[in-house]
User: Fold this.
Amino acid sequence: MKDKAMENLDRQGLDDNEGTASRPLKISEMIIEVARDYIGKGKNMDEKQSYLDVVVSAWNISLLREKHREKALTDHLEKYRSQNPDQEPDHISALREDMLQLIQRKNRLFPDVKRLIIGANIVDEQGEERIAAASTLPVGI
Assistant:
């Protein structure tokens, strides 16, 4: 079952990476394209926000040169592990795999988009969930 943010995007006819004739996709729409099913695993707003936070980290790591991504991913997971000491090693391994898949998907769908995401939140507007996101102008990382 799709969640409301994903359904809203589909209703707008923006479920491809082209946007519309009148405008390109917004960064929030790109996030949904990259992580539609992943964010949808969340059972409530807090869980969806946690999944979205992982997506943002993966997106930003994807902007690095390939030779720097592995170290950035390892550093990110080490920080996560230190902040969540009760997490099982299997959880960390699964998180790593999820992030690698998200990085690959972002680079496959939007290889030329070099915008760093500086913030993203799941918001409820009149009973409908959507993603609000902010990004930088294109960066040369």
